Design the sequence.
């Protein structure tokens, strides 16, 4: 898993995003999200230097799916690079809701 940690706590499943998500990383994130459907999820963005368009689409879609099911979905510890990437891609709403549910 190339150093990424997936941690399941009693309150939510946490996934550590890498510095830059390559296609393989997007596939791993997709698998993680499929397995966690219906349960609270937090994506740790501490290490992120840049979010690709594909990764941003996946995160945006997942946030909407979780919200639609009234299940917590959050981005935590957004790095400056993550904030810049999401804002540039027009997903500033995800930045505004850092650490928030839904």
Sequence:
């Amino acid at each position: 898993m190339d150093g990424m940690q997936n941690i399941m706590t009693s309150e939510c499943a946490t996934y550590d995003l890498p510095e830059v998500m390559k296609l393989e990383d997007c596939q791993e994130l997709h698998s993680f999200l499929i397995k966690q459907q219906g349960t609270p999820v937090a994506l740790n963005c501490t290490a992120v230097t840049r979010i690709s368009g594909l990764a941003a689409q996946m995160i945006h879609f997942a946030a909407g799916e979780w919200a639609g099911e009234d299940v917590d979905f959050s981005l935590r510890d957004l790095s400056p690079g993550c904030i810049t990437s999401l804002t540039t891609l027009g997903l500033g709403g995800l930045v505004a809701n850092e650490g928030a549910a839904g």
Notes: Residues 30 and 76 are 18 Å apart (CA to CA). The longest strand covers residues 13-16. The beta strands are 6-8, 13-16, 41-44, 73-76.
